[in-house]
Amino acid sequence: MHLRRTFQLGFLSATILAACSTAPRESTAPATSSSSSARLADAQRLHDDVAWLADDAQGGRRAGTDDARRCGEWLAERFAALGLEPAGEQGFLQPFDVPLAAVDRGGSKVSCGTQSWSGADRIVPAYCSDGASATGTLAFAGYGVENDALEWNDFKQLGLDANDSLAGRVALIVRGAPPRRKAAPVADANANVVAGNDWGASTSVLTKVMNCKRRGAVAVVVVEHPEHPEALPAFDAAEARATSLPVLIVSAQVLMELAPEYVQTLSWMLDHPMKGLVEVGAPERTVEVVADVEHKKGAAFNVLARLKGKTSARCIVVGAHYDHLGMGGPESKAPGVHAIHNGADDNASGTAAILEIARLLSQRETLECDVVFAAWSGEELGLLGSRHWIEQPTVPLASVAANVNLDMVGRAHAHKLQVLGVASAAPFEAWLGELGRDHGFELALNGSGQGIGGSDHQPFLEHRIPALHFFSGVHDDYHKPSDDIERFESDGAAATVDLTVDLIAKLGAAGELAYVEPLKDPNAPAAPSRGSNGTWFGTVPEYSFEGPGLKLAGTSAGSPAEKAGMRKDDVLIQVGDVKIDTMQDFVYMLSLYKAGDTVLAKFLRDGKEESVRVTLATRNKQ
Ligand SMILES: [Zn+2]
């Protein structure tokens, strides 16, 4: 689960639960939950399964690793033992690729003529470097910053503002923010730039590289400022993003040797802030840039099992992700801590819960329709497993009546749960009211599908399939090694299982469920189709598409992309001045334009290039 802000629709109070019943393990004795408040789920069994998944032996279950593969196979065995049918592509498994942590292989170098520079003390790949090499003439681009609010534009000042001004060239830029200037208060409340020197993202290495790429640069060399050289940063695999360019950070010493005349320029700039830069007439230099970075892929596996119902024309997908953070990484809330993140609550709890739901349902009378149990992988990497399944479903997507997602249900001891996506189908709120009462829960219902955290129900909502997400709340151990078995509350999880079993019975008996566009949570942070400044394009990306370009899995309802006639399978290749190779380019493009701008979008449809004018908007003004 990825952490974000939320808001509540309302509370439903309830009666406290009566008694617990402990069914024998994998027992075949049919259990009924007629009096639904009786406890059927086995809290000890839930505890044991969470203990197994969260054990150090599973290494924190990072998707793409052997640890996660082993957990996937264990889940397949469990589903098989319950007599469920395989519903994957290879039996219970559906393989797909996930990015593994990027690796700096240490062979990066810059060459110019007979000279060559390498070595970790002088050169390090930037976190946004691709594993690539390129050759071109060096072009000095100052700090590589463009920030209209602060009236600073290195490219304009250096006569490099045209879109092809760096075509085929290697851009040389200075790390950090341009020299300070006096704070001039900005009156416009909507400006997302505060008064004075808040450069925001405009001085990040990634944004600078994208500014150079937009102008045609084939590589970027980022140099430490000679006046205040800092130690070279380590290669930050955690933040790795592929910009499809080789990008190297070099020490001031390398600059001294590679292009000494630029050293004077930089100190001049310190003395003359706001005067901008003048071209110093540097001799033309052809340099080769080699970024020895490896972006490897690992094999991950969704685990899918079907419980046959009276009809397969309709099914309910009950899912939970079983992957977690492994030894830490970008999503860890214990930055710098390289230790097993056991993920007992996130999300061994939900995974154990769907196993127990499968066991209980497999012992009940046959449901009206099939239930597909899905243990997703790749959730922590951006919902990759559930997105992959939605793009390559192993049952007809049209047959999916609803999705129930359990992500972090291990802290429900007070019988309090948040439920997201409640507004995505009309009967949900009333059902949950009733179930909350019957099972002694306080349910916080959230109409929008976006709560504090993204999770695997979202790809279903994006495909206009009603979906509910059960969640027992955030806590201090979230995404830390301390999220371990000792803190798992099996009683609350067992009660959650009982409630969900009854919900699934309702879903099964409900027949067609019309999808209702849930309310949009205006506080929800930017989705990929919306820039940090609120600019909205409205594509639903196909995440497994390797590029170049951004392939559409669809468009958001009422969005600029939909209005412009874009559709599923179109491959976006250019928007305005920005060539779209990767998701990174698309996000960068959104930061460049604002609502109301009309841009020309070029895309491939059935292999042929087409273009259309798109007028950008802001989502919450919809
Ligand atoms: Zn999670």
Structural descriptors:
622 residues, alpha+beta, Aminopeptidase, Glucose Oxidase, domain 1, Pdz3 Domain, 10-stranded mixed beta sheet, 8-stranded mixed beta sheet, 32 strands, binds zinc ion
Radius of gyration: 27 Å
* Strand percent estimate: 15-25%
How many strand units? Answer: 32
Q: Termini, distance in Å?
A: 27 Å
Share of helix among residues? 10-25%
> Shape, please?
elongated
Determine the number of helices (DSSP H or I, runs of at least 4 residues): 13
Bound molecules: zinc ion
Q: Note poorly predicted spans.
A: 4-33, 182-195, 273-279
Domain module tally: 3
CATH architecture grouping of the largest domain: 3-Layer(aba) Sandwich
What's the story with the biggest beta sheet?
Answer: 10 strands, mixed
- CATH superfamily assignment of the largest domain? Zn peptidases
CATH topology of the largest domain: Aminopeptidase
CATH class of the largest domain: Alpha Beta
Structural class: alpha+beta
Mean pLDDT: 86
